[in-house]
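To: structure subgroup
Subject: Chain for Friday's discussion

All,

I'm putting the inputs and outputs inline so they're searchable in the archive.
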Amino acid sequence: MEHRQLIIIGAGPAGLSSAIYARRAGLDTLVLEPGLVGGMINSTAEIENYPGLRRVGGMELAGALRSHTEMFAPEFRECRVVSLDTGGETRDKIVVTDKGSISASAVVIATGTSFARVGCKGEEHFTGHGVSYCAVCDGPFYEGAEVAVIGGGNAAVEEAEFLTKFASKVYVIHRRDEFRADRSVIGRALDNPRIEPLLSSVVDEIAGENMVERISVRNVKTGETRDISVEGVFVFVGMKPEIGFLDGLDSIKRTEAGWIVTDDKMETSCEGIFAAGDVRLKFLRQAVTAAGDGAVAAMAAYEYITNMEYLDRVLFEGPRSYALLISGEDQNQAALARSAESLEKSSGIKLMIADVYRTARVRARLGVDKLPAVAEIANGKAFRISGVSSVEDIKNFIGEAVK
């Protein structure tokens, strides 16, 4: 099976940033992406909050990110990830795609989000026939027409303003009594004569013959319902994480809504698997925060991979040896390690000291349940293990060899 040091799933700002940092660190890096490189920003008309770029088109930024990433020559592969095998008690992860399986020392999940749906009658039926989730993609088809936007956040209000470049009128329908977008965004939209807000309202039905012709809008406070003639409906009611390939995989912790939980190094509950960008549980989902996540994930993956390779080399590939296994995050165990270094120098016995707190797979291979422990290793296996609490315990374990 093909093996790579690092596989990055997704090529949006998080994935591309991760690829840049991984390649600069010297990792063999493969980026998997089923669609357009750049991710969701390809469907954003203009971006004016990416540092250093006062205003840039979404597709323009996506192209710049890919061009920059290609300078460092990761491999891009167009494929869809079907499932992820975390590896059990082996080190390698297995990424299963529609074009074959690939093993990896570490994985960064940067699959981002997809558009949530309203769930009203007719939405699914008319998707692609008047119902759209991308104003940039489909807005030009509605020159001179009246359209509706469903949603009240930044995306909805910004896309409504963009649609006024083509449509003669844009209804913005939001179930609350005020928009959730930034004040500057709301101000621009309300100043636009082509935009008509319909607050405290929901769409009950999208209807028509072969294409969208009208919507049924209900005021949630009064219960009053009215039909509005429109030729297009643009839905911007939120996002959901793109994690279908994790279905049934309980070892990676997620929220009820599906967002992946990580620590500050972007590592998930499964060691060696990291998540970056909009797919993870976080406060702000923006291109700039995704890029930052990607950088952190790549460097954390580099630390993990190099540490695992070191442990493999010193613990499993050498001749018979002794190893003190500790958790470097425990002060008492760290002090024991310093004392053990003095023992090694005075005895002449090779005693390797390995911090295996965050490497459950190494502990599993050695059969170590509790730290600190000392092990005698040969031929890639630990055939003698004992818990220790002092240098005297280590001496007793090694026995005559230190006398």
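Points worth raising on Friday:
The mean pLDDT is 92.
The domain at 318-402 is CATH 3.40.30.10 (Glutaredoxin).

D.
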